[in-house]
Amino acid sequence: MRKFWAKIVSFGVMAILLLPAMAAAAGPKAAPLAIVADTRKFTGWEAWWTNLYNESHFYFTLITVVTIPLVGLFFGVLADIIMNWIGLDLKSRELAEH
Amino acid sequence: MEFFYVLMPIAGVKIFWPGLVILGVGVGIIGGFFGMGGAWMVTPGLNILGFPMAFAIGTDIAHMAGKSLISTMRHGKFGNVDYKLGIVMLVGTVVGFEIGAQMVMWLERLGTVELYVRLLYIVLLSFITWMVFTDVAKRKRKEREAVAAGKEIDKLATGIEWSKTLHKIKIPPMMHFKEAQVYCSVWLPIFVSFLTGWLAGILGIGGGLIRMPSLIYFVGCPTHVAVGTDLFEVMISGLYGTATYTYKGRTELMAALIMLCGAAVGAQVGTVATKYIKGYGIRIAFGLAVIGCAISIILKLIPRWVPAIKGFCDVAATVFILGLVSAMSIYIFVRMLAGARREIAAKKAKARLPVTG
Fold first, then answer.
1. Do B248 and A96 touch (CB under 8 A)?
2. Residues 25-64 of A with CB under 8 A from B
3. B262 Cβ partners below 8 Å, 6+ apart?
4. What percent of chain A has pLDDT over 90?
5. Residue A13, exposed/middle/buried by CB under 10 A (0-12, 13-18, 19+)?
6. Can you give the pLDDT at residue B352?
7. How far is CA B203 from CA B112, B118, B321, in A?
8. B162-175: average pLDDT
9. What are the pLDDT digits (tens) for B289-301?
10. Whole-angstrom distance, CA of residue B262 vs CA of residue B333
11. The complex's ipTM?
């Protein structure tokens, strides 16, 4: 059983690593353009952000991939607090089809 | 009016940000309720707001990842996510997706792939619609028969029971999926996810629209668990989709975050609404959403044969999809509000009861 689970986990990891290429392969083909952000229009954090985009797509990706789940998590926890305060039971539900 | 427009740092265009929030709310509600990403609804909306198409897919996937995370968290607390099933299915989804994507590239080299892909999409959506409404009709017939016999039908009883037949195939290893209340060969969810992944790869879609009904009718999950488990898969694929599109420079994070503000609220509403609506309510609404999706694709196909009305069909498809999103979101929101009111009123009534004994 342990071997089986090791295989499942290995497949899972492989799947996760391969998924981006697959998604890109299936999606509409992007035009072969080099997109450059115009940094002249911005100041402060926006200027830093556009510069980061132009300089390193790797760091730009890293920050995006970390920011999205963090913001999602923040909103999720916030909603938990608000709904608990309203008085809704968020930990149980009746599983019924009709 | 300038206040309502925000300059996108990467795309370099001004966008009406309340529009992004409203779009996020609508798609969040529908996604949280049906367990799908909803890219087919977002793209026309972004188009209308004047969003550059080069960034539309990446931005949509980025907001979808965050939104699915919020919905998965909530569904997880309700016990609607079978993580073990989700991970097992991920294997089949990825392999199937890769084969489907490779097939599309092969067909592209042969020519007119787009027409066949859209026709396949229509056939598939018709099949899903037929499956959903046949199931509803069969379940109603069972209920009538039970009432006539003076019996009460089980609250988890369903119309179509293909999954029970599939569970009889006992190819080892067998596995128990606790939340899904399913004991079957591990090859069943892998095979089903392979097929749905393959179709998603061919159609160039995320696959929630196909995976959710497959979890119900072929794997045998209760509706609520199918919705939650599907969202778990959408979350994982969304995060990696975000990585790949962002690395290619095709994601506008600011737009994704603005949409996420709306989607966060919408996802909560959609997810909590599943608590107050029974499984068959979700199935019927899902069937109607699938019909809507099919009509929008038919509207996009018509100009192939009648090119003169292309402009009209494009506008009609966009208006139709946005109208459908609005109508369904309002319906789900109203049902969620009514359910929440009932729950709070019941709690207050219980608190007022005198303590006896």
1. no
2. 25-28, 30-31, 33, 35, 37-38, 41-42, 46, 49-50, 53, 57-58, 60-61, 63-64
3. B20, B21, B22, B23, B24, B25, B26, B28
4. 17
5. exposed
6. 80
7. 14, 8, 19
8. 90
9. 889 888 888 888 8
10. 14
11. 0.78
Roughly how many angstroms between the first and final C-alpha of chain B, as a whole number?
Answer: 65
| Residues pairing with B16 in the sheet | B5
Segment holding B84, helix H or strand E: helix B83-110
A66 Cβ under 8 Å from any chain B Cβ: no
B86 vs B35: CA distance, rounded Å: 13
Contact A19 B158 (CB under 8 A): no
Inter-chain contact A68–B65, Cβ cutoff 8 Å?
A: yes
Scan for tokens 């069972």, then name that residue: B142
pLDDT at residue B134, rounded to an integer: 93
Work out the number of other CB atoms within 10 angstroms of the CB of residue B28: 32
Structure tokens belonging to residue B78:
């309700």
Cα separation, B299 vs B316, in Å, equals 7
